[in-house]
């Protein structure tokens, strides 16, 4: 058992080494301040058994303790994450850096497992996501063209940026793999004149997306399907995948891109917009952060390094034609989501259970931190069938910004 005397020595060591604006309050009322400045975060420890999480302060241990209710934490999420990362990075408790993971031991991705993972993450409720996303319900990296746009404007710019990059023309067919609540296909149909199919494994997303399509009068141009991407057939002039390939699994990326290639019509253009790790060996984010995400947020999710994505695209018969890094755009997006989440906290608490509230509270702020510190990144990659002459793409990238 970790005694109060040992805790006092531990807190003194942290205070001398890090000086964090953190207050720890024990079950008996005893209080430890880890800095001379006013505390920004307060941790209440309900009993001696909870102290083990603090003395081995990996992001996984701290996140688990908060989520499971082993400790009570008050403060802004951004401060919670900053302090948690400082503790984890300090080496106190022998916290590890990036954890290696043998891809041979990763649970295989099956239709059943992938559908269950998607339902776990996305089928909380549409009202839950609507409480902190923009009005278009876009749950992916926004594009802050000037850096000053509000979230709704930046999300619309992101969609237009994608559709302009891949050169969508009136009458063309477009497949959106992982269509979410339908914002991209609705824009592609209404502004660019495309005929669209959107697929997702989330029943909640399908229901709302179909209703939004109906309300917009776009039923003749958009079909929303509850369907696994592996079961899609036919060919499409344009294909988009936005925030979906993170669920595919690193080992399955060649297979995934081969299927995209199969679905892409001759002369067609595709874009993959997704999160990548910045670790060249495809290892998890540092200090147990990836372990927390896998257990509580995205079961079976895996991030590949950009080099792995490009290699597996080529293995799938696709040629990379354009790559754009939007890392800082996602840092700003996640920071905005965090602010929205906290501003609407009381309403959100009525839309889900306390545990899930705490998961998303730290998850969104943790993602903002990870993107801001280059632990993870976001790339838009435009591609076409390998060996084709991309005559439909202009010589200069200038067309992307018209």
TrEMBL record:
Record-annotated active site: 367
Entry keyword Membrane: no
Lineage top rank: taxon: Bacteria
InterPro entries per the UniProt record, alphabetical: CFA/CMAS (IPR050723), CMAS (IPR003333), DUF7884 (IPR057206), SAM-dependent_MTases_sf (IPR029063)
GO molecular function: methyltransferase activity
Segments forming domain DUF7884: 11-86
Coiled-coil parts of chain: none
Family: Belongs to the CFA/CMAS family.
Protein name per its UniProtKB record: Class I SAM-dependent methyltransferase
């Amino acid at each position: 058992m970790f005694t109060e005397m040992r805790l006092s020595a531990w807190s003194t060591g942290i205070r001398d080494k890090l000086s964090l604006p953190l207050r720890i309050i024990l079950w008996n009322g005893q209080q430890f301040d880890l800095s001379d400045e006013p505390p920004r975060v307060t941790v209440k420890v309900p009993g001696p058994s909870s102290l083990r999480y603090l003395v081995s302060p990996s992001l996984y241990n701290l996140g688990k303790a908060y989520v499971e209710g082993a400790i009570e934490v008050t403060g802004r999420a951004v401060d919670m994450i900053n302090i948690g990362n400082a503790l984890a990075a300090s080496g106190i408790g022998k916290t590890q850096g990036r954890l290696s993971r043998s891809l041979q031991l990763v649970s295989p991705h099956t239709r059943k497992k992938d559908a269950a993972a998607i339902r776990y993450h996305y089928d909380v409720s549409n009202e839950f996501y609507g409480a902190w996303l923009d009005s278009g319900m876009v749950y992916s990296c926004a594009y802050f063209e000037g850096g000053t746009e509000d979230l709704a404007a930046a999300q619309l710019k992101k969609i237009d940026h994608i559709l302009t990059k891949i050169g969508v023309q009136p009458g063309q067919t477009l497949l959106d793999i992982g269509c979410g609540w339908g914002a991209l296909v609705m824009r592609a149909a209404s502004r660019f004149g495309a005929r669209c199919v959107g697929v997702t494994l989330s029943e909640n997303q399908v229901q709302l997306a179909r209703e939004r399509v109906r309300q917009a009068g776009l039923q003749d141009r958009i079909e929303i399907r509850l369907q696994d991407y592996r079961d899609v057939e036919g060919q499409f002039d344009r294909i988009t995948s936005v925030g979906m390939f993170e669920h595919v699994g690193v080992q399955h990326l060649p297979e995934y891109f081969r299927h995209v290639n199969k679905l892409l019509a001759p002369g067609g253009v595709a874009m993959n917009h997704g999160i990548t790790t910045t670790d060249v060996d495809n290892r998890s984010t540092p200090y147990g952060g990836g372990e927390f995400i896998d257990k509580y947020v995205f079961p079976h999710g895996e991030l590949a390094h950009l080099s792995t994505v490009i290699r597996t695209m080529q293995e799938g018969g696709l040629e990379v034609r354009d790559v754009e890094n939007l890392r800082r755009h996602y840092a700003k997006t996640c920071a905005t989501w965090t602010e929205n989440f906290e501003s609407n906290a009381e309403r959100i608490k009525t839309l889900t259970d306390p545990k899930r509230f705490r998961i998303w509270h730290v998850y969104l702020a943790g993602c903002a931190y990870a993107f801001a510190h280059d632990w993870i990144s976001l790339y838009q990659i435009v591609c076409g069938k390998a060996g084709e002459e991309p005559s439909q793409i202009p010589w200069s990238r200038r067309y992307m910004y018209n």
